[in-house]
Design brief:
The chain is α+β, with helices and mostly antiparallel strands. Helices cover about 25% and strands about 30% of the residues. Strand 2 and strand 3 form a beta hairpin. The relative contact order is 0.18. The model has no long low-confidence stretch (mean pLDDT about 95).
């Protein structure tokens, strides 16, 4: 498997949208709006990191990272997601490659940390963990996790960009 991870390019946008739809098509805990979220984040210039996994010139994975707001006023924090891998390529480590590349990019940008909403069994292996003092309203705390890249864990409610409310 020869996979390259690179920043998205202008001619990747349709492939990213199609991939994201496919990746979440049968996902149990999906709103099926992930592709709209990415498009809205891009439109509002909130995609801090948008990287693709490419195999044989085909995009097979994508990760998006955008800034989040913390009620305490702490700055430099980001939210990971959506992260997508084609269904037939899932379980092959492509998501992990995207995760490591995205987290490395955040470190290079001087980010303080990153939050994620998702399966704790998956994200803990990358260093994410639940912190009671950093929370997302109306979400079970074990499913909302963070990783500190610099400094310490902030306290407060995390608020994602309005793009995460996209319905089309």
């Amino acid at each position: 498997m020869d996979i390259q991870i690179r920043d998205e390019q202008e001619n990747d946008l349709q492939a990213i949208e199609d991939l994201t739809k496919q990746a979440f098509l049968n996902a149990e805990h999906s709103s099926h709006t992930e592709h709209w979220i990415i498009n809205r984040l891009r439109k509002h210039e909130q995609l801090t990191v948008s990287m693709v996994a490419v195999e044989n010139k085909n995009i097979i994975g994508h990760v998006a990272i955008s800034p989040v707001t913390i009620s305490s006023g702490t700055i430099g924090w980001y939210g990971l997601g959506p992260i997508s891998v084609l269904p037939e390529k899932q379980g092959m480590g492509i998501g992990a490659l995207l995760m490591y590349a995205a987290l490395e990019r955040l470190k290079q940008l001087g980010a303080q940390g990153c939050v994620v909403l998702g399966d704790p069994n998956y994200y803990t292996r990358f260093g994410f963990k639940a912190y009671p003092e950093l929370y997302l309203k109306e979400v079970p705390p074990e499913y909302f996790q963070a990783i500190v890249l610099h400094g310490s864990i902030p306290k407060g409610e995390v608020i994602y960009h309005e793009a995460f409310k996209a319905t089309d």
